[in-house]
Design goal:
The chain contains twelve helices and eleven strands. The protein has about 325 residues and is an alpha/beta fold.
Length: about 325
């Protein structure tokens, strides 16, 4: 065999081995299943968003994409599952701010460090939290709710939250301090069971993301009476912000994004981010997400990482100012 022929064969062998260096789903259509972990139960806002995007990502990636619910502990169980997953691009975690920016600050031993255990894979939206009232609660506005708690409830009321030590819990604390109320945050394992109890008038109010409440609000089954953020939401133009009501400092908005295990190859992250950008650009997807109360906008992995850092800094100050002790 000539030297030239041996060199050609060696180059061909090296070229054929290159795909093995990439995650299976980054090699092309039909290579492997992509699992998207969700840290909350089926039926909640995050789950609905995940399933919408999974359907569209199947088309863009040309492969099987499944949503896998790992509910519990405010997304901590799903985060630990991501940490233990192979860094080959076969598992991603769709989550919002709580699990990434809040939970590591309020749990002594979260079991994961987003800065070291995860890497951003791309973001697609921001959103706001809001206060909603149950159908049996005799108040049509936030001011009427405050008056009802003070005058009819002896100043004390339970408020549902989708996870302990979350943004909604800190909001309940601050609302209580600001208006002289004893608001007891009642934690649930996600928004779906919380809303179920609200619809059954088992609890008079709840704080959660707008996308969790919006359909029942539109149907007249629940009433969103105030939202966070620097401006009113396009999906809820008649609902005032807390800043309008005198509670400033909550203008920074939470975010939604995908995360992968640390060490996932850059080529895999880039291909997924490109597919996500294509999905988010589809008018039908944007419309559906906007109707859920999300402010839609693609974020590259680097942009999501910066958004996460900025939001974490804001909530570090809020958590420390509240006097909350990690548990």
């Amino acid at each position: 065999m000539t030297v030239t022929r041996r060199r050609l064969l060696a180059r061909a062998a090296a070229a054929s081995a290159l795909p093995a260096l990439l995650p299976a789903w980054a090699q092309g259509p039909g290579a492997k299943t992509l699992r998207i972990l969700v840290g909350f139960p089926p039926g909640g806002g995050t789950d609905v968003v995940a399933r919408l995007l999974a359907d569209k990502l199947r088309e863009q990636l040309g492969m099987t994409v499944v949503v896998e619910n790992r509910p519990g502990a405010g997304g901590q169980i799903a985060a630990l599952a991501l940490k233990a997953a192979p860094a080959d691009g076969s598992v991603l975690f769709l989550t919002h701010d709580h699990t990434i920016s809040i939970l590591p600050q309020v749990v002594k031993n979260a079991g994961f460090d987003p800065a070291h255990d995860f890497v951003s894979a791309g973001g697609f939206a921001t959103f706001v939290n809001g206060l909603a009232l149950s159908p049996g609660t005799p108040a049509a506005s936030f001011t009427e709710f405050v008056d009802w708690v003070k005058n009819k409830q002896g100043g004390k009321s339970a408020v549902g939250i989708p996870a302990p030590a979350s943004t909604p819990e800190f909001l309940a604390r601050l609302l209580g301090q600001r208006y002289g109320l004893d608001l007891v945050a009642a934690p649930y394992r996600g928004s779906a069971p919380m809303i179920g109890d609200m619809l059954g008038n088992q609890i008079p109010a709840g704080i959660g993301s707008v996308q969790d409440f919006i359909e029942n609000h539109r149907a007249g089954k629940l009433r969103v009476v105030a939202v966070l953020g620097g401006k009113r939401q396009a999906a809820l133009p008649d609902v005032p912000t807390f800043a309008e009501l005198g509670l400033a400092g909550f203008e920074d908005t939470p975010y939604y994004g995908f995360y992968a295990p640390a060490g996932t190859p850059a080529a895999a992250l880039s291909r997924f981010a490109d597919a996500l950008a294509q999905v988010v650009a589809q008018p039908g997807v944007r419309e559906q997400l906007a109707n859920m109360g999300l402010a839609v906008g693609f974020m590259s992995p680097a942009q999501l990482a910066e958004r996460e850092r900025a939001y974490t800094r804001v909530w570090t100050r809020i958590i420390q100012a509240s006097g909350f002790v990690p548990q």
